[in-house]
Amino acid sequence: MATHRKADDHSGLKLRAAQRALELVEPGMTLGLGSGSTATLWIKLLGERVRDQGLAIRAIASSEDSERLGRSYGIPFVNFEEHRSLDLTVDGADEIAPKLALIKGGGGKLLREKIVASASKRFVIVADESKQVEKLGRFPLPVEVIPMAAPLVSDSLRKLGFTPTIRVNRDRTRYVTDEGNLILDCSGLLIENPESRYDRLHHRGSGTWPLPEHGRPGSDCG
């Protein structure tokens, strides 16, 4: 019984976070739709507003799954040829450390998540208290890499102290991102200084992100 109560409380926290993010949406906005369980709740709530109340918005999604869900509610989608910037993006996180250092990309959508976030005037993370940690790294750090570079990037990550493992599906086939890339899940290292670690990792497509600054990523993990 206690386990069910805890699960219900967790679901309630996710829902409240998604509802709070919905309050930030205004008619006429172009929105970035993120990924993850709480962001998915937000997309559903947003979709209900579009379907049932005629909320006029446009969207660009950070994953094919998020776009598919949004379209099921009638959310209209555009692309960066039509709109170079987004008014607001709402996304989730896998870990949140002090000073809003984040690990994202656990769902394997990190490259598109970063592109959408970087085009956003305002970038909002929705998450409940279960994602809070003292130091990043208990959740494996995801690094997206083109297949031919996987051995080289793996070697570089080992030199930084990580233990990289190519992500696989339940049937043991390699997980492939929406862009046809692989994911290296990097474990074995708590991240003491996220800012310096980000500087060394970001060019390899890691899931460590900078703190949003002036509406776009600019200083550490997320």
Describe the secondary structure blueprint for this structure.
Layout: H1 2-22, E1 30-33, H2 37-53, E2 58-61, H3 64-72, E3 88-91, E4 95-97, E5 101-103, H4 110-118, E6 123-125, E7 141-145, H5 150-159, E8 163-166, E9 182-187, H6 194-201, E10 208-209, E11 212-213, E12 216-217
Parallel strand pairs: 1-2, 1-3, 3-6
Antiparallel strand pairs: 4-5, 5-10, 7-9, 8-9, 11-12
What's a quick, concise take on this entry?
With 222 residues, this protein is an alpha/beta fold. The strands form 4 sheets. It has a 4-stranded parallel sheet, with helices on both faces. A 3-stranded antiparallel sheet has the order 4-5-10, with helices on one face. Helix 1 crosses helix 2.
Write structural notes for this entry.
- By secondary structure, this protein is an alpha/beta fold.
- It has 2 domains: 2-131, Rossmann fold (3-Layer(aba) Sandwich); 141-208, Alpha-Beta Plaits.
- Helices cover 33% and strands 19% of the residues.
- The chain is built from 6 helices and 12 strands.
- It has helices at residues 2-22, 37-53, 64-72, 110-118, 150-159, 194-201, and strands spanning 30-33, 58-61, 88-91, 95-97, 101-103, 123-125, 141-145, 163-166, 182-187, 208-209, 212-213, 216-217.
- The strands form 4 sheets. It has a 4-stranded parallel beta sheet, with helices on both faces. The chain has a 3-stranded antiparallel beta sheet with strand order 4-5-10, covered by helices on one side. Strands 7-9-8 form a 3-stranded antiparallel beta sheet, covered by helices on one side.
- Helix 1 crosses helix 2 and helix 2 (37-53) runs parallel beside helix 3 (64-72).
- The model is unreliable at 209-222 (pLDDT under 50).
